[in-house]
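Annex B, item 7. Sequence and structure tokens for protein A, then protein B.
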Amino acid sequence: QVQLVESGGGLVQPGGSLRLSCVVSEYVSRIYTLRWYHQAPGKELELVASVDSHDNKNYVDFVKGRFNISKDTPKRTVDLQMKSLEIEDTAVYYCNAYLPWTEDWGQGTQVTVSS
């Protein structure tokens, strides 16, 4: 089982930036895919961004050009840099690690975009 701990959430004004970080208990290079999801109030869990073991990155359309996912192998972290935040980005953000024999989640970190 992979343990994941997110941090970096908070309150930010529209147009602002936040950097979320997820500490991973295993070597990030060994994890098939690391993902960030979010769940807005009253909505379903939604994939935001992912990075695989070859460092291929994918983003959902509504964050392209605004968010960047990155891994730091020595630090065992996967970060989500968020810029030009919009009110619609308000959600709990979860880190996810996928391996063929397990899929694990962090506890989530709240991001609130409000003026």
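Protein B:
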Amino acid sequence: VRLQESGPGLVKPAQTLFPSCAVSNGSITTNYYYWGWVRQPPGKGPEWIGYIDYSGNTEYSPSLESRTSISRDNTKNTMYLQMDNLKPEDSAVYYCYVDSDHRYWGQGTQVTVSS
């Protein structure tokens, strides 16, 4: 499975982030696969954001749940992350991943929240 993130790069505070994760060499609806997002701020450890499973069920980090949504477009074989009301501390490299027999990662997309 290959994952490729795309993101806006620079976002202003209070705006919405909407990066995508395109999947190839696999299907986003494959049974028992879990598709998720992790971010890593500069100089800090990784932070789990949430996932969407093969049935479309979602789980989120409690600290981010109120302003985060993960969705997918089965026709495009793509997963999306939506994060509202961005703050400078949301600046990070955002990674998508899939848990199958192994955890596969995308290369990450840098997001900077700044006015």
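Comment on protein B: The first strand starts at residue 2 and ends at 6.
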